[in-house]
Amino acid sequence: MLRSRIVAILCCTLLQVCLGTVYAWSFFQTLLVRQLGWSFTDTAVAFSITIFSLGMSAAAAGMLLPRVGPRRLALAGSVLFSGGYVLAGFALHLDSLLLFYLGYGVIGGAGIGLGYVTPVATVAKWFPDRKGLATGIVVMGFGVGAVVLSKGLAPLLVVETKGDLPLIFIWLGVVFAMVLIPCSWALRDPPAEFMKRFHGSGTSNEPEEDPGSTARCLFSSEFAVMWIVFFFNIAAGIAVISFQSPLLQDVWGLADPSVEPEVLAEYGATLIAASSLCNGIGRLFWGLLSDRIGRVRVFRILLASQMIVFGILMTERDPWIFSILVCYILLCFGGGFATMPSFILDVFGVRRMSSVYGVMLTAWAAAGVCGPLYIGYLKDQYPDRAIIYCFLIGVLILGLGYVFSYLLNDGRIRLQRPSVESTLKQYGIETPGHRPAR
Q1: CA-to-CA distance for 55 and 366, rounded, in angstroms?
Q2: Which of 57, 152, 179, 343 is deepest in the core (most CB within 10 A)?
């Protein structure tokens, strides 16, 4: 059994690392603009489609996982993710932007979404005694995936293919398939004896009464406010993720115009790697902190502190300070993803957690459209003032999120329908076994 648990956490982590490479997108952004002549808006649309497809398919995956099981869902996600890269490579060879949107964006993004929820749910079943630690390791894998691509695999392929982008994307699809498909095939739920021992009746703190249907949870005011706050935190962070390499290259170019473009690209890749580590660490740090001080307070700290950082970044032109502040933004970005699952568990309970969290990830989809697109547009239309405008809008986004955070409540929601007896009592109608007070 120990061997099965080790295999489970290893495969789940490898799945998340491969899928998390999507956050290294800005590594390719400048290359696509220079080699193919695409605009920054064009490339931003590709990333936005990917994140939108990711969020929507993750919502569907949350509903499908209990029915189809982790192996089938992970295999489907792995094939789509790897195939999306291969199709994107052919799109680059044909210089077809629409085909690239379909391959990298729609198909690849859907693959990430299907695979995203599977490892976390599966490893939690295998480690009921160390659930927090095990899921923390797996979720951290998604955060650090960009390090593997930006500082390892992508630079190696750039050298080996002499910068041939179509070949780079095709080889990435092949490599990811070689890792993802075997790991997905190895995924399975624990045996019935294990589940009965550790997940049987009497092990949950869930109250006996039905907390209400999933639909009633999703249409509650509590869910709406949580979705809005989650959206604003993601929108600010993902806008920076999508353009952190080009933004740093702009800042460094202003500080030292003598630096060659190839060197600037290396600096950008280093920032992607460092910020990705912060993204992963933030998922552990803020998640643990939320256990101590509460989910609502953590979200207020995340939003308020980022408002200050975005304000500083509007005028900061020291590349090193700029990089440190970007890393802090990614630390907070990961913190939102670490805190929200526990927040949902607190408010809606265990029974509705997977379905509600899956739909909550549509905030990720919406933020993935809004965040990168406004930065891409500003870089194309106002190249000299894009940095100032980008972070100014970020301050406004975070400010709205901070205001809405005061409507958050981490108390357990009760959505059960009123009983017939309680309804009759309101009108003073006597029911069997009950005589109204006189």
Answers
A1: 8
A2: 57
